[in-house]
Amino acid sequence: MTHLTPERTATPRSWSQTAVVPGSVRTHVTRWLVRMLGLAVAVIVLAVCGSAMLPVVRADETAYLPFYTPPSPLPPGRPGDLIRTEPSRLVLEPSGQLGAFVGTGTRIMYRSTDAQGQPVAVTGTYIEPDVPWPGIGPRPLLAYAVMGFGMGEQCAPSRMFNQGIHASLQTGFDVMFNLEEGWVATLLARGFAIVITDGVGMGIHDSRSPQFLNRNAGGAALIDAARAAMKLPGTSLDPHGPVAFWGWLAGAHAALSAAELAASYGTELHVVGTYAAAAPTDIAAVLPAMDGNFLAGVLGYVLRGIMASYPATEQPIWDALTPRGVEMLANTGSQCLLQTGVDYMFRHIQFWFKQDIFATAAAEPFKSLLWAQRIGNVKPTGPVYLTHNRWDPFDPYSAVEQTAADWCAMGADVTLWTNEQPPLFNKLDINSMLPVFVDGERSMSWIADRFNGIPSAPNCGQIPAPA
Question: Which residues sit opposite 124 in a β-bridge?
Fold first, then answer.
């Protein structure tokens, strides 16, 4: 199976064409999630039991290369300035026949800054809704960061929205689903304009890895995506209109990073709120959770993110790995998330390292590097809504509770919603993936209230004081 070549035209959609319309997100998105989980299970079974029998298939990615190869040197400009744009095909699945988004996509490349504050080109997608904004004031803009689809450039969100399901098999059984499309389709149908960043290093045709889970790079890329969207011609956005940050899992880290950086890096933006689901607010706390997890291989993404963000760490990291660890880090650098899960599911991560990985992470220089990525050290701009499952197996609840407490002590406007779904097959990360959909209507209502100027109702009084 190969994905379709991205079209270079974008056709406005009518309400009758959309697969996800306003109403109960719990109904529409949960049905979509069940279909995606069913497909994922089928893919995993095929990958584990019969991938050796599959024919070699290589999807043609060359259609993307002209756009995703950044100019060198970058043209002069400021963060958020557009470098290039083009129409972007939007589909829920590869054929484009089973439903549609009620909006028109534009692929963007814009200037931003990396972990070291150096100028870089970042790509993404802006989606202009076909429907009016039913709320108060100008149309709002959601600056959206996805959960993290993988390390390979073929996994970039702006490419996934062209394909719905990616299957190139270039690194084995390389299949990935756009797990964010139900959210984006629903939010779009409710009148939100959406700009989705690929993040620093993701999608760009370059030898360097994405700067995964880096606070400076993730926050800057999201803030600059909002700036770039405001500069696009022919949109319904007010250049001074309201903006909110939205993210889930790794995207939640980027959204919260943007909220913390906005006071210094995005001062001109009218930030009205930030939504973050299952946020990994403390990467050091996530490391033990990776051990024996279905997504144990995501440790490769974390290591590559550190190497890309801080080049001086690259050789020491390679030197610290066993042969099995070298193989894991080399492979995960070009994979999408599902294959990483299949290849390294339930592995014990210590076997990838020559020394105790947890002791190494707790010692310098990695202790300081991980602390620099922590969320909760700087007061955020605007209200923040954190939604988290109490028994989240991947992003510990205690870490996000500590972040909320630290912010509350700074006088921030914080709401921590605790999902009490009991533990269920936790090594499969069900309590990281499912609760966000269960609480979807509550989450979208909170963000809509911020755009409509309704006062927030923080619950700092119910959050334990910082330790």
Answer: 108, 197
Domain extent listing, the chain = 15-283+371-462
Q: What is this structure's pTM? A: 0.89
> For residue 423, is the peptide bond before it cis, meaning its omega torsion is within 30 degrees of 0?
no
CA 141 to chain centre: 17
CA 63 – CA 411 distance, rounded (Å): 49
pLDDT digits (tens, 9 = 90+) for 410-436: 999 999 999 999 999 999 999 999 999
Residue type for position 288: P
Amino acid present at 232: L
pLDDT in tens, 269-311: 999 999 999 999 999 999 999 999 999 999 999 999 999 999 9
Q: Tell me how crowded residue 225 is: count the other CB atoms within 10 A of its CB.
A: 32
Positive or negative torsion for Cα 163, 167, 170, 171: positive
How many angstroms from the chain centroid is the CA of residue 235?
24
Confidence of residue 11 (pLDDT cuts 50, 70, 90): very low
Six-digit token pair at 399? 């870490």
What is the DSSP secondary structure assignment for residue 216, as one 8-state letter?
H
Two structure tokens written together for 67: 């756009």
Helix segments in 421-466, DSSP class H: 430-433, 435-438, 440-451
Q: Is the pLDDT of residue 316 over 90?
A: yes
Over residues 123-133, the mean pLDDT reads 98
Long-range contacts made by residues 44-51, C-beta under 8 angstroms, separation at least 24? 44/338, 44/341, 44/342, 46/173, 47/173, 47/175, 47/339, 47/342, 48/342, 51/172, 51/173
H or E element at residue 250: helix 250-265
Choose among 129, 162, 133, 158: nearest CA to 145: 158
Q: According to CATH, what is the number of the domain 15-283+371-462?
A: 3.40.50.1820
C-beta of residue 162 within 8 angstroms of C-beta of residue 155: no
Phi and psi angles of residue 57, each rounded to the nearest 5 degrees, phi first: -125, 135
Could you tell me where the DSSP H helices lie in 109-236? 157-163, 181-189, 215-231
